[in-house]
Please model this.
Amino acid sequence: MRVFSGIRPTGELHIGNYLGSIKQWVEFQEKAECIFCIVDLHAITTPYNPRELQKNILEMAIAYLVAGLDPEKCIFFVQSTVKEHLELTWFLNTICPISELNRMTQFKEKSKQFKESINAGLLDYPVLMASDILLYQTDLVPVGKDQKQHVELARTLARKFNRKFGKTFKEPQVLLPKIGEKIMSLQNPRKKMSKTDDPKGCIGLFETPEAIEEKIMAAVTDPGKIIKYDSMKKPGISNLLTIHSLFSGKPIKGLEKNFRNKGYKEFKKSLIKLLINSLEPFRKKRKELLSREVYVREILKQGTKKAQMVAASTMENVRKKIGLV
Ligand code: TYM
Model:
């Protein structure tokens, strides 16, 4: 079984990214053939600073290592270093209806957010993502809920291509985590946690203990005092319960019981302690890896080599099927 997923190098990883995706990846590397990508070509579809891109890529590679990805057990590499992603995007563009792209939720949201730069790359983002996935004959794509629609488009394009040119691609399945598919903002628990949208509602993977305490204490809760999971009526406390459960490994029902006669403040104190203790090893390891840039860059280079072999073999077949050879 082959697993593929990716993250944009747009700055520090947050616990939403970690719980929604990387945490699953770490488990998969033990039992499947895994390929994980730092998707820099996706990152440049929204405004960014070219001088910071390389730094962000390196930071993301370090975050992958810190979170537990092992280059001996999985492949990880930078998207732009395997040119086949771009070539396949062009071919898939020729079979992808524009109407499919226009209805993508992320495109609509980002178009509102970045009114000044609604570029063709932003519209084409899901086709590049489909290429990432299909290039490696992927079976499973572990992502957060916001990416489900994009993976479904990858399935549609695989089917369309196979029908038109003969069986070429596997149809990938999306895999959402059982809990944590959408970690919400601490400031607005009806919106997903996102660093670019609101940094105060977001906890970075390398956040300091002081910032963790401040952000959790300021996290929006709901009327009433009861610690109970109800995502419709009590989205704030439900989100905090989800985060607690995923870091402590305790089921939500058990947490509700433990905090039955206690208030929000006590629950928040416990969550702060848990987060500080859970993220402390990440911060330590990041610091250590920041001084080993050559080692990290070598891992990416080796990853590119391995990914390129798989990509080249798929593309040889694709070019033949399309009639270009
Ligand atoms: P990106 O960088 O926006 O998000 C990376 C991963 O984090 C998940 N995620 C969340 N999960 C739970 N709660 C949240 N608040 C939250 N915020 C983000 C996302 O669902 C994603 O899994 N387009 C992709 C990157 C990509 C990709 C691919 C993924 C490019 N090509 C091929 C899989 C396969 C993205 O949104 O990245």
